[in-house]
Amino acid sequence: MDSFPFLAALFLITAATWLISSRRRKNLPPGPFPYPIVGNMLQLGSQPHETFAKLSKKYGPLMSINLGSLYTVIVSSPEMAKEIMHKYGQVFSGRTIAQAVEACGHDKISMGFLPVGGEWRDMRKICKEQMFSHQSMEGSQDLRKLKLQQLLDYAHKCSDEGRAIDIREAAFITTLNLMSATLFSLQATEFDSKATMEFKEIIEGVASIVGVPNFADFFPILRPFDPQGVKRRADVYFGRLLGLIEGYLNERIQSRKANPNAPKKDDFLETLVDILEANDYKLKTEHLTHLMLDLFVGGSETSTTEIEWIMEELMSSPDKMAKVKAELKSVMGEQKVVDERQMPNLPYLQAVVKESMRLHPPGPLLLPRKAESDQVVNGYLIPKGSQVLINAWAMGRDETIWKNPNSFEPERFLDQKIDFKGQDYELIPFGSGRRVCPGMPLANRILHTVTATLVHNFEWKLERPDASDAERQGVLFGFAVRRAVPLKVIPFKK
Ligand code: HEM
């Protein structure tokens, strides 16, 4: 019995030494000491992207860690990101599947999680050519204008009552409304209507489950037992959201049958019904309902989080806020809601959005990729099945790439052409390559128009100007990395 601690220590040391030496033997990317069983999980801390950024300074831009039994490679430089997402893009085009994503069989049918193949290609094609094409984005912009007007009305009401607006809350509802307008052309709802609230509750539920660390993802042996109840809860939320989407789709199919000559609507639902009727693709109704789920979940948390960061940065820099206001005034004049066509005339606003994305990419580690086969990158072997995380946050804060990387300086983007569309690897909040975010054209419009509407029409004061910097910059890691304390600001009419 007395010898137990000694034997246990001996076992741990032997296992760790074996893990490290096997890393060296196979020439895997270097990384911190992995403990047996847990690997490096205890080192992650509450902000894994920041921990990885620090570790990569020691171990390099291609570093490996063990998350339980999930072997993971972390990429932290634009050069290595280009290798992974472009040069070897086909190899690293897979996704690791979290247990939550298995809810309602989502992983087997979802564009966001299927491996690159026929079904995935068809859905990407529908998104690119039909839903997010320039033409369909232009076609649905008047519907989005109505939703921005609702945000404006709500802000006026708060201003009249001297009430603070929770920016996250208002951005979430507006984003959902803008997405519902684009996807379903839902009639203008009240700002806090029942339908919007139901969507909001479900999507927040999905995001909170997908964002929570789940032991079963790191120790697959636990998956059948679902020890944290993640899969059970995800089944409920995914089921409710799919039910709502199916309801909208069936309604549209029925109304087409009832009025075959009625004019078509400018929305994605109409496109989906056309696709189902024409049967051009080998896709079933479920592919399309799960696709809608991906779009709603993928688009709302991310956009909402970013709008809150943009407003936070502008509130912290009154001089930059004044510059955006002046630019908006010169372009919009007395007009209240910005027209999406005016975006090219607002270079400073565009620079503000880019700068916020550089400092606060909503998904700092993007969406996990997976190696579909063994691949040597920069002299190191990345074995088949490895999870690959791209640390976009670390690249955005790298002092070898950006001057004053931790300061909010939108001006840096005025005299250079760097964009976040996936070609400039130092700024890739939307990813890059085959799996780059398909919703970028809509996200781009949402971020700019919501910010413009808020900034142009009001002066803003913090509800709690005495809050410390630590409180204001504190973050919560999850599906998207957001402010820990919601930003609350009071609007004043000009
Ligand atoms: C600020 C807003 C947004 C950010 C920062 C963002 C970011 C991302 C990132 C990093 C990826 C993974 C890219 C990769 O692996 O290379 C992604 C994928 C995806 N995004 Fe977005 N996104 C945003 C908005 C949206 C919107 C508005 C939609 C839809 C309406 C959307 C739908 C999706 C989908 C479906 C995927 C999966 C694509 C695939 O795996 O093939 N996202 N997004």
TrEMBL record:
<dbReference type="GO" id="GO:0016712">
    <property type="term" value="F:oxidoreductase activity, acting on paired donors, with incorporation or reduction of molecular oxygen, reduced flavin or flavoprotein as one donor, and incorporation of one atom of oxygen"/>
</dbReference>
<dbReference type="InterPro" id="IPR002401">
    <property type="entry name" value="Cyt_P450_E_grp-I"/>
</dbReference>
<dbReference type="InterPro" id="IPR001128">
    <property type="entry name" value="Cyt_P450"/>
</dbReference>
<keyword id="KW-0503">Monooxygenase</keyword>
<comment type="similarity">
    <text>Belongs to the cytochrome P450 family.</text>
</comment>
<dbReference type="GO" id="GO:0016020">
    <property type="term" value="C:membrane"/>
</dbReference>
<keyword id="KW-1133">Transmembrane helix</keyword>
<dbReference type="GO" id="GO:0005506">
    <property type="term" value="F:iron ion binding"/>
</dbReference>
<keyword id="KW-0479">Metal-binding</keyword>
<keyword id="KW-0408">Iron</keyword>
<dbReference type="GO" id="GO:0016114">
    <property type="term" value="P:terpenoid biosynthetic process"/>
</dbReference>
<keyword id="KW-0812">Transmembrane</keyword>
<feature type="binding site" description="axial binding residue">
    <location>
        <position position="437"/>
    </location>
    <ligand>
        <name>heme</name>
    </ligand>
</feature>
<keyword id="KW-0349">Heme</keyword>
<dbReference type="Pfam" id="PF00067">
    <property type="entry name" value="p450"/>
</dbReference>
<dbReference type="InterPro" id="IPR017972">
    <property type="entry name" value="Cyt_P450_CS"/>
</dbReference>
<keyword id="KW-0472">Membrane</keyword>
<dbReference type="InterPro" id="IPR036396">
    <property type="entry name" value="Cyt_P450_sf"/>
</dbReference>
<protein>
    <submittedName>
        <fullName>Cytochrome P450</fullName>
    </submittedName>
</protein>
<keyword id="KW-0560">Oxidoreductase</keyword>
<dbReference type="GO" id="GO:0020037">
    <property type="term" value="F:heme binding"/>
</dbReference>
